[in-house]
């Protein structure tokens, strides 16, 4: 199977995802730049992950299959959370925990046969189980409202960005400039995404930022 076209799609999608994702994380939440860059990030990540899975299957790379599947699940659930109205839930929320459970089961099964990547696969499985359990709470509560809904969108998109950033700067060292590796600067983008993830999550959940001064609810 010739996977060269898929590799090109993967690289192109990843490039756009890193740039648009960084823009979305740094831009004012709810502003036009954030919305536009967030949309580009979603499309680019979806393309990158969709291309990654068949390539990883052909090359027998269970870790990449798990990473791509989990990331695709994250951005899908995050995207829907941003599009739902407060207190709204539909068929996708019912399917979401099944998808998360499937990702967890696949990653865990792979971890039993992949000694070198077992810890990473088990990590993906554990995170998928955690996310799937949170999906169940959305069904029980019949949707999320306010800061809880925005937090669901935010942490899942940010975690997807973290996976993409780590996959490139740490997982693909041959493409990182030598000067960055020599000074260990290739870890900086990964740490920066982690810091922004926790910063925005804390700001949404534990401050009054979510509520605009005029009483309108800020949108993600």
Layout of helices and strands:
Elements: H1 4-26, H2 32-58, H3 62-83, H4 91-111, H5 118-140, H6 146-169, H7 178-182, H8 188-206
Helix pairs in contact: 1-2, 1-6, 2-3, 3-4, 3-5, 3-6, 4-5, 6-8
Structural descriptors:
8 helices; disordered C terminus; single chain; 220 residues; globular; 75% helix; mainly alpha
Tally of helical runs: 8
Which ranges are low-confidence, i.e. pLDDT below 50, for 5 or more consecutive residues? Answer: 213-220
Helicity range: over 70%
Specify Rg, calculated over alpha carbons. 18 Å
Classification by helices and strands: mainly alpha
User: In percent, how much strand structure appears in the residues?
Assistant: under 5%
Number of domains: 1
Oligomer: single chain
Shape descriptor reads globular
